[in-house]
Design a protein that fits this description.
alpha/beta; eight-stranded parallel beta barrel; 8 strands; 37% helix; 17% strand
Amino acid sequence: MPHASHTPRGVYLITPDEPDTARLLARVRPLLAGATWLQYRNKAVDAATAREQAHALQALCAEAGVPLIVNDDAALAAEVGAAGVHLGEDDGDIAAARALLGPGAIIGASCYDQLELAQRAVAAGASYVAFGAFFPSRSKATPRRAQPQLLRDAAALGVPRVAIGGLAVDNIAPLVEAGADLVAVISGVFAAEDPVAALRAYQACFV
């Protein structure tokens, strides 16, 4: 939780665009033992399916003791009782999300390659800041490229720092060294031949 004395560390797992809810749950379930946080993100389904998937994932996460964070939709996060919401640059107001979800919610902000965005997000009530893309990503176009130094510069903000964008087991060591508390991963785990082993390999970078 954002106000806990220890900072969350490890893999911030983000769901793939999986239209079949049963299949999504089957893909996520074995990974929850190794994930620090789970973000529900699905750009390929309608609102009704998104609600169904978010409710189902929240039940799964509650059972596993893993915080569920909903991408882009504070109202949906509130409806399913998720731990929080992640907001991109155009996804709504951090202060409004904080008012809706309460003081204990985890509220994250995409800050791309800009420390100033991160400063504004934390001032508005964000619990963590996400920077990236550090590398070309398989899940979306990434015109903005962040540098490891940004993670060092953001230490003064006093919130967890998330690195995102094309992160592979063999390229995250410099980011962890620069201060990334969490690495956000979609295809690096879900597209792997053995997702559980892939997740373990990412987590091992934090030892």
